[in-house]
Amino acid sequence: MLILKNVHKSFDSVSVLNGINLHLERGVVYTLRGDNGSGKTTLFNIISGFLRPTSGTICLKGKEIGNTSPYQINRLGIGRTFQDLRLATQMTVRENILAAMENGLFAFPSKTQKERVDKVLEQVALDGKADELAGEISYGQQKLLTLGCCIANNADLLLIDEPVAGIDKTNFFKIINVVMEMKKSGKTVFQIEHHPDYVRDTSDTVVIMERGRIVC
Ligand SMILES: Nc1ncnc2c1ncn2[C@@H]1O[C@H](COP(=O)(O)OP(=O)(O)OP(=O)(O)O)[C@@H](O)[C@H]1O
Ligand SMILES: [Mg+2]
């Protein structure tokens, strides 16, 4: 569903991605590992349109997306989370989920949308937190909320940046369940994570990055 060919990214004269070739198939969970600074988040920023590649091609379902805005890329089916969460902390948990849905931010929510929000809240085990401010729930719950936003957004390729970094044991297992449910529902997951138990329990394929190159 996603094919990258010889993708390079430089910031001024510093080369961060050095010829990435990647082919992601539908319904598979891929885990990207690599040292700090090896270029993992930069690769996610390129795929999701937050950065433009310096050269190379990126094709989603046969369509070149290397020069497409993040919003349009999202509408074509790529959703993402951020390493630094980026939730709307002054909005409630429910409102964050609603805002991630198509037209959820600007239109008055329909009955169907409200039901869908409730379903997503259940899926990420936050149904008891729906009316709390996103900035006031625990860090692990915030991580779950970012995954809920990703589900609500209805993309079919999900880029998830370090889902379990720094979280407690209870939420760790909840996040494993959420990602396994994503796979069951036919999503393709491309995640960055280092935690060995998490990588073992969730991954179909592990991809290793070293200094801006995929080495296996
Ligand atoms: N917008 C930018 N401008 C300049 N340099 C950048 C920019 N974004 C990333 N870099 C640099 O690119 C390199 C790779 O950063 P990146 O965030 O992709 O690494 P990472 O593999 O995700 O690391 P970590 O495991 O710490 O999250 C780093 O040296 C970083 O400083
Ligand atoms: Mg990173």
Summarize, please.
This protein has 216 residues and is of the alpha/beta class. It is built from 7 helices and 10 strands.
Walk me through this protein's architecture.
The chain is α/β, with parallel strands linked by helices and 216 residues long. It has helices at residues 40-47, 70-76, 93-100, 111-123, 139-152, 169-184, 196-202, and strands at 2-11, 14-24, 29-34, 55-60, 63-64, 78-80, 157-161, 188-192, 205-210, 213-214. The chain has a single domain (2-214), classed as Rossmann fold. Helices cover 34% and strands 26% of the residues. A 6-stranded mixed sheet has the order 6-7-8-3-9-10, sandwiched between helices. α3 (93-100) runs parallel beside α5 and α5 (139-152) runs parallel beside α6. The longest helix is centred in the C-terminal third of the chain and has 16 residues, at 169-184. The chain binds adenosine-5'-triphosphate (ATP) and magnesium ion.
